[in-house]
Sequence to fold (722 residues):
Amino acid sequence: MVKKFLSLQWKQLKRSPAFEQKLITKIFMALFALYFIACFSFMGIAAYFIIKKEGDGLDPLFVVNSALIYYFIVDLLIRFFMQKLPVLDIKPLLVLPIKRRISINFLLAKGLVSFFNLLPLFFYIPFTIVLLIEGYDVFGVTLWFMSMLAITCTVNFINFLINKNNLYFVVIVGVLATFIGLAYYGYFDAAPYVGSFLNGIYTNYYYALLPFGLLALFYYINYNFLRKDFYLDGSIKKKVQEVKTTELTFLDRFGKVAPFLKNDIKMIWRNKRPKQVVFISILFVGYGLIFFTQSVYDNQLWIKPFIAMFITGGFLMTFGQNVPSWDSEYYNLMMSQNIKYRTYLESKWYLMVVATFISFILAIPYVYFGMDILYFVIAGACFNIGLNSFVVLWGGVFNKTAIPLNEKAKAFSNTQAFNASMLLIALPKLLLPIVIFLIPYLITNDLYTGVICLGASGVVGILFKKPIFKFIEKQYQKQKYATVAAYKKKN
Amino acid sequence: MITIYNLSKTYNSNTVLNINGLSIPKGQSFGLVGNNGAGKTTLFSLLLDLINPTTGYIKSNNIAVHECEDWKPFTSAFIDESFLIGYLTAEEYFYFIGELRGVSKKEVDALLATFEDFFHGEILEQKKYLRDMSKGNQKKAGIVATFIGNPKVLILDEPFANLDPTTQFRLKKIIKELTEKRDVTVLISSHDLLHVTEVCERIVVLNKGEVVKDLATSEATLKELEAYFAG
Fold:
């Protein structure tokens, strides 16, 4: 049975449109993964000796233990945004003679086979081997190693839960936020306790019961959660939404693109996924608070254009980069109706421009941190509107994953459209503002020249809007058939 | 109106459509029949430039569809649910199509009023998004939307499937009326031989991507088709 499941899964992976990407993307992805593997392995081998040398006689294992809690939290955070959750189309399985227990266990086990779970091994294994060579207690170290695996798996299952269930999300994020807040304001720091607990696994073996207990607990919760929903009217049933109609006639002034704008706003408003995305894009506006409140970054000039771009670019980064997948459900209509490709793309562009402008208005209070910061924000907004928007649209050409619009993170549906290949396309968007700012700045050594150049890049982009659109349109036309075919394969 | 030249579509080495030449004059009601995999939907997708022909091309009103977008203003189609926008109500969807085709709200309303019978009170003012409607009702909305904006070429893929019997009769009437004026070229595919012989004046049978029969509909056509598919 398990073998059958595995072969089904393998076929699904092999035949998914995302997998049939260009070779160059695959190579980049492989390099990306190799880089992380190399980093982790190096750390695993070197950590012991570095700490031994620099650590004032502290025990390397204990130092690592005291730092691990931060790693776990960051791990959870990254997983939350990036880890693809296991998907198993259960509908056809419901009526087949397969025990639910087996399906669910397989679903959960499948989630463990993930880059995010394998990566830590590249640290833990070499580190453990070094410890053994250095004469640590064999049983203690082995137990410690096993406990780390248990904790990694626990984090994996926690991530699964908070992705699928809002209650768990609130509770777990709430607990974490409370502890982080308590530590930040100096009332109570839980981190040392976690550190000494991890030490305890090595010194008093029975401490290891807790990580394994946690793993069993979270596995059990996940299992029950899925078991409960394993019905047609459970997780698969569609909820009929109540209709709220709006005319949005004020958008008519946009002329040719108005019908699309109205449609897009309804699309965002009435579907779960785009709503989620817009909500996240609003959070982006607050991104600067992390950096501008800390004096460490005062002299880190290169980071400022980057942040300025992020503050106003939330919508570009979250919504824009998934164009045209938002229309994947009715892409055939869009391609055969009385619509010029150009108008369609232009409407998306206007939407991004308007959203960026709104983010900019929201970001004006940053003037509190000084006029210089405001200049950066203005320049960043110009860059986003005039140049980045085009880059984002262009990146959309490579979008081949259909987005089920009205599906939020749900137990049995594909949830994360945001994946590593998207990150790769995002790289130029992240680096461009830094380059455009830094080069003139380094040449003239004048802050304002850099800021002006960043802003001017946007103006130049607007001036060349026509030829740029012509270019982008051509790229979309070229990919049209491939995109239509890819959207046909729904997740 | 529509002319097909040396058209073929090949996936890997599998030829799914191969039509040497076919010409559909203006105002004809053209029926396409054939078993699954005969290439009906492929032909329609090629007509709408949703897939790329391997060889040859299609000209619609003297415009090569794969080279230029100018066929879009006079063409409308309903192939499957991917021609519906699920998060809109039926009215909003009709108005949206209207806006795309330069038809005002009032005109759309006037057109919809003539389909009251066809809708049978299940489409308009339902306070329901299209995605929450039944398959049959979705189809009704999709078909009626193709009539908006006086298209000259109308493409309907299996319009009778999923419809209840009453609606099937009404749809037949609508299509007949539409083609009476000899102004609109209607292309229909169907698995229902009776319906298609009633509605279409010309019927082409596809088999494995090739045209095997090209009949002007007469009394004997239904028998001939039945004989062909039974054997």
In short: The radius of gyration of chain B is 17 Å. The mean pLDDT of chain B is 92. The domain at 2-82+151-230 of chain B is CATH 3.40.50.300 (Rossmann fold). Chain B touches chain A at residues 48-52, 69, 72-73, 75-77, 79-80, 82-89, 91-92, 96-97, 99-102, 127-129, 131-132, 149 (CB under 8 Å).
